[in-house]
Amino acid sequence: MRIVLGVAGGIAAYKAAHIIRRLRELDHSVKVVPTANALKFIGAPTLEALSGQTVTTDVFDEIDTVNHVRIGQEAELVIIAPATADLIAKIAAGRADDLLTASVLTTTAQVVVAPAMHTEMWLNPATVANIATLRSRGVHVLDPAVGRLTGPDSGPGRLPEPEDIVAYALSVKDADAGDPAAAASDACGVLTGRRIVISAGGTREPLDPVRFLGNRSSGKQGIALAKAAHAAGADVELVAANIDSGLLTGLPDDITITPVESTLELQYAMQSAQTRADAIIMAAAVADYRPAETTDSKMKKSGDEGLTLRLVQNPDILRGLVDERSRQTRLGDQIIVGFAAETGDAETTALDYARAKFRRKGVDLLVFNDVSDDQAFGHDDTMVQIITSDAGDINVGEEFHGSKDHVSQKVIAALSDQFTHVESTT
């Protein structure tokens, strides 16, 4: 496939080298079109050596081949990574004052944009409006990652990892498959008109005013799911259990966020939201037990004596949502997605535990990840398998490795497929 890789002038331009290498490993032809400022961050010799093609920035270079039109016309896919706020503004305005913007203006191929900039730029109303404009025109815009930026800054605005950009861009091309109708459907969002309720984070069960029993869930996966569902056109509600406020900063403003702390608070919030949901994704890590008693003041150590805690079992929120769906006729088409973070033992594999949970919970989809050896919590990448059923048979999807953003896109695609299946059988 003939791919044009646009590179804008930001510090993340060096990651373009990894994108080129990955695309070439997959036997794609890559024409790199940088901006003039991009060459201040990464040199043309590097881009030419990796791509095997000449690199230029000006519309007056190679004018005998009408380069500023030909490159866009011949492209089968355009990827821009990184895309700065300035370049995004130019594309949104229809500018064509260099080779890259001219190529974007002439192409009829799918265009994938991966922004990278400081948080303040990403959240600026001008950038927000420009991104909305691009998406309204069918441009596929990846939300930036949250993490370390230039200097000491950290927040939303980091370029997604190269392998995730490549995987997303190629999935866009596969979904399109040259079908304009499919492209238009994808642009407007496969979940447009749907309300999706997502739980995220980890519950905390108070022992006293300063101590609690908790787990290691950061909420990153749930946040990524909220972004992916929103990008697919859904109205999203996020029930956030003890998620760091910095992680929530990069969420679109129209995502409703309900903060909770304990399992009982999460149960109440999810039960309340269920009545207006077309689908529920239970990604939060929920405590199985809570202390039977709590104290109003901080517990003190008493000599060398240990502390004995009596725990009581928490309600099964996920199973309760499934049961409520069965009781309420109007919720009959609601889709419920569960998560299973499992470890294996000497007798049973983690996957076998996930299969058993799928049967026990009665969900439509179960996203399984093996958290043995600290493989998931708090990390930016993960491995999942999606478990479904067909006429009573349990189907386990292939292992999928990737960032939590990319995994979320897979989950949202599976959710969309489930909506299609439900509609075809009713």
From TrEMBL:
Domain annotation DNA/pantothenate metabolism flavoprotein C-terminal: ranges: 191-415
Positions of region (Phosphopantothenate--cysteine ligase): 196-426
Pathway: Cofactor biosynthesis; coenzyme A biosynthesis; CoA from (R)-pantothenate: step 2/5; Cofactor biosynthesis; coenzyme A biosynthesis; CoA from (R)-pantothenate: step 3/5
Pfam families in alphabetical order: DFP, Flavoprotein
E.C. numbers: 4.1.1.36, 6.3.2.5
GO biological process: coenzyme A biosynthetic process; pantothenate catabolic process
Gene Ontology MF annotations: FMN binding; metal ion binding; phosphopantothenate--cysteine ligase activity; phosphopantothenoylcysteine decarboxylase activity
InterPro entries per UniProt: CoaB-like_sf (IPR035929), CoaBC (IPR005252), DNA/pantothenate-metab_flavo_C (IPR007085), Flavin_trans-like (IPR036551), Flavoprotein (IPR003382)
Region (Phosphopantothenoylcysteine decarboxylase): 1-195
SUPFAM superfamilies hit by this protein: CoaB-like, Homo-oligomeric flavin-containing Cys decarboxylases, HFCD
Record bears the keyword Flavoprotein: yes
The organism's place on the tree of life at top rank: Bacteria
Chain's role: Catalyzes two sequential steps in the biosynthesis of coenzyme A. In the first step cysteine is conjugated to 4'-phosphopantothenate to form 4-phosphopantothenoylcysteine. In the second step the latter compound is decarboxylated to form 4'-phosphopantotheine. Catalyzes two steps in the biosynthesis of coenzyme A. In the first step cysteine is conjugated to 4'-phosphopantothenate to form 4-phosphopantothenoylcysteine, in the latter compound is decarboxylated to form 4'-phosphopantotheine.
Name listed for the protein in its UniProt record: Coenzyme A biosynthesis bifunctional protein CoaBC
Native source organism of the sequence: Brevibacterium linens
Source species taxonomy: Bacteria, Bacillati, Actinomycetota, Actinomycetes, Micrococcales
